[in-house]
C-alpha cells in the first residue's frame, strides 16, 4: 500500500467491558543494580517451562512485557500477572539477575542499553535520534472493551480529565541520570518528546480520528512506527480503549489499584452515554497543565477540576472518586482493589518512597534494591 492510500481501521467492538493489561518490567544486575540486556533469555525460558504465560520482548533488550489474556475482572487480570511475574523472577534468579519495575531507571546510561532487533524499533531510533535513544522508560497499559467506535472518543476525552489522577497514584520515576529530577514522573516528560507520543487530540468522533490517521499515513508519520503512541488511544484490533498514562508499577498491589480505577472510569463514562448524559471535558490547555502538574508534583498536585478552572488537590479528588465509583466497582468485582487507591494515598506513591530512600541513603543503588523488593513485599490481594 502506498503512502497515498489508507485503509480505514475497523474497530473490533467488544460486547462487554473486558479487560487486558500490559506491564513492562526490566532486568537488573544484583551487584551493579544496572540494567541487563538479557530479556530474550527470560522470555524463551518461560516459554519452555510455562507456555501458557504470555511474555513479549520489548523496545529495549532489558525489558520483558507481561500481557494478560482477555479478562473479565481486575482480580482475574492480577492473578494472571502474578503467575507471570513469579515465573519471570524465577528465571531471572536462575541466571543471576533480579526483576525490577518502575517508570524510569535512576542512573542507567541510555547509551549502554541496546534496542531489540526489530525493524520498526531501528526505524524509530533512526528517525528520533537523541530523544528516541533516551527511552529508558517503562509503563502500564490498560485495555478496556468498548461496544462501538462511536463511543471511543467521547470516553477518551472524558478520561483525559482524570489524567492527573491516574498518573499521580502510579508515578514512580523521580530519578534520572543519577539525579533527583524533582518530578514525580520523569517518564511522562521524556516520553512525550517522541513525535507520535503525548496527549491525544480531542477528536469529536470516529471519523475525525480516521481522517487524522489517513493524514498521518499519507505524510509518512506512522510508516516508521505503525501507529500513534498517544497516552490514551483506540486499539481497534482488540476493540478497546488503551490507557497508557501510568508509570510501570513496582508491584502488583499498586498495579491492581491503577487497573481498578481505570476499569471503573471507562465503564462509568460508557454508562453515562447509555443514560444520555453529557461526558466531562476540559479545555486542551487545562488538560496539558494537569498532565504537567501531575508529572511534577504527583500526589501533591493541585489540579484543574472543571471548565470553569476550579482547582482541587488531587488526593481529595481521588478520595471522592473512590467513594463515587465504589458501587460500580462492586458490580465489576474490584471494590477491594479500588480501595487500594486510598492505601497509596496513606503509604505514599512509588516516587515518594524512592525519593525518601535516596534522601536517606544518598545512593540510587539502594533505591533499586528497595524497588526490586517491593515485588515481594507489596503483594496483591489474595496472595
From TrEMBL:
> Which E.C. number(s) belong to this protein?
6.3.2.2
What keywords are assigned to this protein? Answer: ATP-binding, Ligase, Nucleotide-binding
Q: Would I find Ligase among this entry's keywords?
A: yes
| Top-level taxon of the source organism | Bacteria
**Coiled coil (UniProt feature):** none
Record-level Gene Ontology MF annotations = ligase activity
Top enzyme class, one word, equals ligase
Pfam families recorded for this chain? GCS2
The cross-references to InterPro entries, in alphabetical order and at most eight, read: GCL_type2/YbdK_subfam, GCS2, Gln_synth/guanido_kin_cat_dom, YbdK
Q: Which reaction does it catalyse?
A: L-cysteine + L-glutamate + ATP = gamma-L-glutamyl-L-cysteine + ADP + phosphate + H(+)
Q: Any keyword Secreted?
A: no
Q: Which family does it belong to?
A: Belongs to the glutamate--cysteine ligase type 2 family. YbdK subfamily.
Matches recorded under NCBIfam families: gshA_cyan_rel, PRK13517.1-2, PRK13517.1-4
Write out the function statement from the record: ATP-dependent carboxylate-amine ligase which exhibits weak glutamate--cysteine ligase activity.
Name-wise, this protein is Putative glutamate--cysteine ligase 2
Which source organism does the UniProt entry give? Corynebacterium casei LMG S-19264
